[in-house]
From TrEMBL:
Top EC class of this enzyme: transferase
Assigned keywords, A-Z: Acyltransferase, Metal-binding, Mitochondrion, Transferase, Transit peptide, tRNA processing
Location in or out of the cell: Mitochondrion
Biological process annotations from GO: tRNA threonylcarbamoyladenosine modification
Name of the protein this chain belongs to: N(6)-L-threonylcarbamoyladenine synthase
EC numbers on record: 2.3.1.234
Pfam annotation, one family: TsaD
Stored InterPro entries: ATPase_NBD, Gcp-like_dom, KAE1/TsaD, TsaD
UniProt gene name: OSGEPL1
CDD domains: ASKHA_NBD_OSGEPL1_QRI7_euk
GO molecular function: metal ion binding; tRNA N(6)-L-threonylcarbamoyladenine synthase activity
Length: 434
């Protein structure tokens, strides 16, 4: 925000005090005594503008995100204030190809990353020299996409001699909530997206205990595949939506009770997830219904809304049950107490309101508080990367002053795996009406 020196004077000062303040300021600027009329001083001072936030704040981080199919950047300060951001989505391109093609995503990142970063810096009013550090997603994600972000970031880091902060994508999702909510450690987090599904205890900025993860594919990936199998891209109302969003909207028109899909890992008393078996069952059901209705593969079934509703409910129930067990485990171990019983849900799939409502039932039953970032911050964005950089900068963790040897990691676990302890606890989850 630009303000004039005259406007910066406290409002309660009298006109005479403001005049004297202006005279002193002008004398200091010119280096000689000055005798001008009030209107002349006011006009002169209006030509001088400054950014008070730049002078009062000490940490400014540029975050860059290219782990999958969104090219994003943002500048965030140590209070969580978002000074500027920009994003380029590849969704429309990948909808036409029926899924993300890594080489296509890489090329689109290359074409847009410089423009996105420049737009972000311009919107923030910050120059690269004023940055405290540059933070970039280096793990996990698509190798070709990660490579573009890392290459561009290291060029910036070396050009402007700035510290570099490598970011774990899932860690950034987990800590996003601390931008909007004053939440202390520890807390439980559920991360659900197109590439991941996991439950973890967040003990600190880079201190995670993994309770469970997907044993095969992620829920977002599964919902996208079901949407493609239902040929929703051919439906005018859903042709521009991502698969997961199309399923959520179509499900509102369907009756989930018309189809009954078996819940994954029903008899396994752990916090792991599985979605590939459900996807196979759905694919088999769609094929059966196509034969019954006498339509070819690629045409839209009359019962598509019912299938979408049943699939979404099964996914939501599966996620809810594993999360319920995680909460009970944390309460049993004393990790979550009445004073800090918080469940944070983040990631792209966390924007699904049906899944959120299902988790609300679980948190009410376990006396927990459910917190979700704003929908805009659930999907991949540069803000969460910049904020994770701020968190690390404030904690003095993972700050590199030499980028030599830094590599991206397409696959990378989050934290210390204690899922065996969850398995050994064998906690039975009471039934809830969902």
């Amino acid at each position: 925000m630009l303000v004039t020196l005259a406007a910066w004077a406290p409002q309660e000062l009298s006109c005479m005090c403001i005049y004297r303040f202006n005279m002193l300021t002008l004398n200091k600027i010119l280096g000689v005594p000055c005798r001008l009329a009030k209107w002349q001083i006011h006009g002169f001072l209006k030509s001088f503008t400054f950014h008070p936030e730049k002078q009062l704040l000490h940490k400014l981080v540029l975050g860059i995100e290219t782990s999958c199919d969104d090219t994003a950047a943002a500048v965030v300060d140590e209070t969580g204030n978002i000074l500027g951001e920009a994003i380029h989505s590849q969704t429309k391109v990948h909808l036409k190809t029926g899924g993300i093609i890594p080489s296509v995503a890489q090329q689109l990142h290359r074409e847009n990353i410089e423009k996105i970063v420049k737009e972000t810096l311009s919107a923030s009013g910050i120059t690269p020299n004023e940055l405290s550090a540059i933070a970039t997603t280096v793990k996990p994600g698509l190798a070709l996409s990660l490579g573009v972000g890392l290459e561009y970031s290291t060029q910036l880091v070396n050009q402007y001699k700035k510290p570099f902060i490598p970011i774990h994508h899932m860690e950034a999702h987990a800590l996003t909530i601390r931008i909007t909510n004053k939440i202390d450690f520890p807390f439980l987090v559920l991360l659900v997206s197109g590439g991941h599904c996991l439950l973890a205890i967040v003990q600190g900025v880079s201190d995670f205990l993994l309770l469970g993860k997907s044993l095969d594919i992620a829920p977002g990936d599964m919902l996208d595949k079901v949407a493609r199998r239902l040929s929703l891209i051919k439906h005018p109302a859903y042709s521009t939506m991502s698969g997961g969003k199309a399923i959520e909207h179509l499900a509102k028109q369907g009756n989930r009770l018309h189809f009954d899909f078996r819940h994954p890992l029903h008899f396994c008393r752990n916090c792991d997830f599985s979605f590939s078996g459900l996807q196979t069952a759905v694919d088999r059901m769609i094929t059966q219904k196509e034969k019954e209705e006498g339509i070819e593969k690629g045409e839209i079934l009359s019962c598509a809304a019912d299938i979408a509703a049943a699939v979404q409910h099964t996914v939501a129930s599966h996620i809810a049950k594993r999360t319920h067990r995680a909460i009970l485990f944390c309460q049993q171990k004393g990790v979550l107490t009445p004073s800090n019983a918080v469940l944070v849900v983040s990631g792209g799939v966390a924007s699904n309101l049906y899944i959120r409502k299902t988790l609300e039932i679980v948190t009410k039953a376990t006396n927990c508080i459910l917190l979700c970032p704003p929908l805009k911050l659930c999907t991949d964005n540069g803000i969460m990367i910049a904020w994770n950089g701020i968190e690390k900068l404030c904690a003095g963790l993972g700050i590199l002053h030499n980028t030599e040897g830094i590599r991206y990691e397409p696959k990378c676990p989050l934290g210390v795996d204690i899922s065996k302890q969850v398995q050994e606890a064998a906690i039975k989850v009471p039934s809830l009406k969902i």
